Fold these 4 entries.
Entry 1:
Amino acid sequence: MAPCRDAAKVAADGAEYSEVHETNEDRTGKGLMQQAANIAPGIVEVEEVEPTIRFA
């Protein structure tokens, strides 16, 4: 599962995994694996470069 946009932005800002996980759980009701949290900054970067690409 990909991180929600808010969790991805928190991760891109350099937050610890626990904060990213909690943000995703608060917004979606689902936790987030460490691997998904680790790729979240890249998701934000791609979205900023190509805003027509959308992630959950």
Entry 2:
Amino acid sequence: MDTGAGNSSINLMIGGEAGQGLATVGQILAKSLVRAGARA
């Protein structure tokens, strides 16, 4: 969502049971976002 002030935000929720690799999903997502040029 663009607020018009050069800021944007994305909310993403990932759920699952313990042991289903959520940490791995988070790492893949973070790496993908960095490669796409996303920054905090």
Entry 3:
Amino acid sequence: MINTSTKSMPFVLLISFIFFPNWNLKAQINTQVREIQTNKDQIQTEYAFTVAHITDIHIGEGIDDFGTPGFLKDTLPSGIESQPLISLFSVVNWINENKDTEDIRFVVVTGDITGSAEESEYRKAKEILDRLTLPYVVLIGNHDIWPYINYGNEAEYAYGDSLMMAVFEDNFQKNKLFFDAWDDGTRLTKTYDEESGHFQNLINFSFAYKGHTFISLDWNPRYHVRKAEPGIGPEPSLHDYVGGTLPWFVSQLEHPLVEGKKNIVVMSHHPPQRDISALFNFGFTVDQYEKLSQSILPFKEKTSLWLAGHVHRSSSYTMRTMGSEIKIMDVRETASNKEYSNGLVTLIRINQVTPVTTGIQTNTLSDQIKIYPNPSYTYLNINVKGLDFKNVEVYDLSGAKVLSKEVSITNNIPFQIDISVLPQGLYVLQINGDNFSTQKRFAKLD
């Protein structure tokens, strides 16, 4: 994710403990499994299939020169049992053992495959991923862009993208046979990047599976980090030029491989987050985020979920426009696999939107619910139109459940919950029915 100088380590460790607890190695007996569902706020959906998501495997990290000397055409090491290797072996084994019971159709790895883009790191990662007994898709992350051993012993420019495609090319070809449709996008075309001064392969591509379009995006910069460290920095780049990532992304949203409602899954290494992590160069700048969100806003009825890694945390939230706060899609970040002793996987339960038969005119449950006052000091009034609900739950922004109440509510009858015990802050109210749930955000004041 990020290169950090020794002098800044105490400060970075303090910040990581406070804001990013997933950065610390989790000693676990078993592979850790998380699970989310797509399109939970839609009125009528049905389960389609499951995708396994892993990220930030960082093969070679902690070893200055992985394999034989050098970062190009270096051969694989033997007898090394580093934590990233152990974690990846473990999660691969878990997926193989549970793919049938969990209905996993394929695996997505959203970047930072390597520690420093050495060819041997790529090849070792592929050797382990090839043990999977179902298809897998790899994306590129910032650690995969510029090959290096250490500062002063690194490639002349960022050609890790070409190296990654060469190592995994047979996997790309196998995926073309497995998926229902495939678009190589920009990955096979070298485009001149003004920031780096070189022609680069932006690894953008898309594919279709069972009525859904998956769009894979490369936001990684290609210029050298602007300080005395090797490789590139952690910040994303929109690549907003002809042949670049942002224009290609918009073209895919305009004409996806499969047309439909809420059936597009976006995947990239960098997430579209707007929290404190963006202050540390992990995320898009305010101007970049505004341009990105406004560019894809017209397609919000198509987009369902954005999968990412990079920040080394497990987090679910909503991508919204700035100012107007219009929802564009849900976002899921998965924490770094290498920071869990036996790996970490998120199971993405893909739910497809089905025709509404309830007679309700609006497309989302959220539009049928009003909460007031918001912000509130003591009570929230909840007014529901058109649907019956069974219970309500309140979560803080870390995802922890802080309140739960069973209810028996029928159409158009308002009810009230006591939030006086909650500390001041932002919360998510989740209202659940028999076959659906929806969420609203509110602020608690003291």
Entry 4:
Amino acid sequence: MVIYKFTAKKTLVVLPLLLGSYSSLTFAETGESTFVKDTKTGCKIYDLEEGNHSASWSGACVDGKISGNGTLTIISKKPNATCENKGEMKEGLRTGRSVTQCSDGVRIEGEYKPVAGVVNSIGTVNFPNGDKYVGEMKGMTLHGQGTYTAASGKSMTGTFSNNKLVADEKITTEVKALMELVRKSSLLFAEKKYVEHVALIDQFLTKYSQLPKEITQLPELQSLLSTMLSSKGTAFLLQKKYDAYFTLYDQLLNQFNQLPQSIKESPEIQHNMASAASSLGTVYLIQNLPDKAFSTWDENSKNFGASTDERVKKILAEAQVTKNSFQKIEAETQMVLNANKIASNELDLLTTAKKALFLFQENNLPAAILAFEDFLTAFNKTSSEYKSTQFAQRLHSNIMLHSARAYLKTNNTDRFFSISNNLIEKNKNSSDLDQLYILLQIKVIRIF
């Protein structure tokens, strides 16, 4: 039987690897749920596939588990093979250095380290036909970084997963480079260096596109791609680059639509898509397009309402609360408009203020800050007649107060003091009780 196949044309090699022939290597890698018992003593032996092996142990049995030094004899039922493992055991698991010799000619020498019920090891596997594996294993399964060398002398180094080589050395190196970009971009995001953050994500996307299709279709990398696109979108939002966010969302949606259903249902993918769609609705709200915002949120609930992920449930619930609150504020605002007969050319300003306060109330601080800034810019462009009204003065001071609080909550103390200084200067001679109350609040905040 062929146990290894080299392919010169592909950088990705998937091995139907050897372990179908040499069953003595097919031990499980899990803990409490998979064990066999010594046929004579009943002592438990972990990391063996229950039902596929029987075993006996010559050493001590502590708390019902093999322990200490001795010889572990394993008999595989399909196909027949007997292996003897000499070494130290601890709580039913191999530990330290040991040697396993099997009747079918397979010999394993390794350094075993049990972690959370899984036997991790680095060792050497010699096969009777002259082939050899040197590298990482989980239990007795080839898993991790390693090199497989055929008797002919040809070898392949890369990443093994469950006895299969899933990525050769070149691909493994490129994937590691991707992960380094992920790490660096995360640090830049934490430092609020959004331009540099986006630039690194673009580098990530370029390198990602150069990987073989067999690699990029792996669920783990598809999830990583989704997360990076989502992070890029967040950076655009924080920079108020709404058009760029729309393009990015389309890219994220396109990636999602091309995924197999099994990957679409993964928690991380669903979280990224639900979060991105929720943010899209918020952008529509900021742009005075509430109908689009509501339809986006409704569609989001339709798509991911069945999700069991708590993060997704929270996103959908918050969007619904936002929608309900906005509609309530909309009705109350209309009552104010009717009572005060505010001119039509000032309606957009009032709508922006309403959105900003509502976003602050929902603790969506990045979006609230953007809306506060939009309001302050728009207010400066209104007529002097409107600015002089008591209603406008109170509204402006209230927005400045909440804007300062939002900046303080996001640790932007420079902007907080800048706005609060302006607010104090603006109201220092005011006799309006509402204005004085706002002034008192900002002074108290500055003290604490």
